[in-house]
Amino acid sequence: MNYLEYWGLTDRPFEGNRDSKFFYHSKCHEEALERMLYICKDGNMNFGLLTGEIGCGKTMIRTVLENELEKDGFKTVCIENSNLPYIYILAEIVNQIKKERIKKSHINKFHLITDLKELLVKVVIEGGSHLVILMDEAQQLEKDTLDKVKNLTNISSESENYITIILIGQPDLKTTILSMPQISQRISLRYHIKALDLTEVNDYIIHRLKIAGHKTGDIFNSDAVEPIYLSSGGIPRSINRICKLAIDFGFARQIKTIDSSIVEAIIRDFNIHEASSITLQKTENSKSTL
């Protein structure tokens, strides 16, 4: 009997990917999605800002948002890593709209802006659509690059904007935006994703198990949820990491229910390895200064 058969699953429930079928509609995540959809569907709001701690579910929301927009006929471009010079961001936008790689000779600002305007006419304006650019890891954007990206929202008619940009990133992005009034004034809606509370952590675990094929989602005892919550801080990526190892351990030991003792043992192991890594790093740093 393999892992999936043992747990009565059809899929692995706690993998570190962005499979949108696992999207958990917590109050906070649902509101974040609704706000970003509202900005895009309005069409004249320039920028949206979505922030949150590492692992809180920003990229998952981006994926669900992209899927929803495409269903509604929007043209979407997704920049998964924004740590690029402006010229390459512009090139990637054109690449994704054309669905082909542009010639190296055209990778200059004049040609790219010309191409983008022509594509906006053919793909967006004549098609009765709207272009949404989703920029993930936007805290990595240089200020000068962000200022240039802002200018894309100037491409419009007298009554209609053709481009909406959603900036997605870690909390540092909020500080950067506030230091740039020319950007901050164009952001129509902002939302910061909060961590899950104890009840939501329990519901999140059950939700993922059910989506993965388990009939009830009841693999973790109620006493196992609180240590998961306390260790993870309610951050989905950290919850996934603990739960994945817990059910791996349960399968290896042929245990049918995960209780607090299993979870606490996994968390202790995490803490030991993290402490060892920190000590090793400090030792390496000390050697490098000698």
Explain how this protein is built:
By secondary structure, the protein is of the alpha/beta class. It has 2 domains: 27-193, P-loop containing nucleotide triphosphate hydrolases (Rossmann fold), CATH 3.40.50.300; 196-289, Helicase, Ruva Protein, domain 3 (Orthogonal Bundle), CATH 1.10.8. 54% of the residues lie in helices and 10% in strands. It contains 12 helices and 5 strands. The chain has helices at 3-7, 27-42, 58-71, 86-98, 109-125, 143-150, 172-178, 181-184, 198-211, 222-232, 236-252, 260-289, and strands at residues 47-52, 75-79, 131-135, 163-169, 187-193. It has a 5-stranded parallel beta sheet with strand order 2-3-4-1-5, with helices on both faces. β3, α6 and β4 (163-169) form a beta-alpha-beta unit. α2 (27-42) crosses α3 and α10 (222-232) packs parallel to α12. Mean pLDDT is 91; it is low at 276-280.
CATH fold-type name of the largest domain:
Rossmann fold
Biggest sheet strand order reads 2-3-4-1-5
Strand content: 5-15%
By secondary-structure content and strand pairing, the structural class works out as alpha/beta
Radius of gyration computed on alpha carbons: 22 Å
Portion of residues within helices:
40-55%
Number of strands: 5
Count the domains.
2
Uncertain parts: 276-280
Oligomer: single chain
- CATH C-level label of the largest domain: Alpha Beta
Largest sheet: number of strands, sense, barrel closure: 5 strands, parallel
Global outline = elongated
Number of helices: 12
What's the helix-strand series? HHEHEHHEHEHHEHHHH
- CATH superfamily membership of the largest domain: P-loop containing nucleotide triphosphate hydrolases
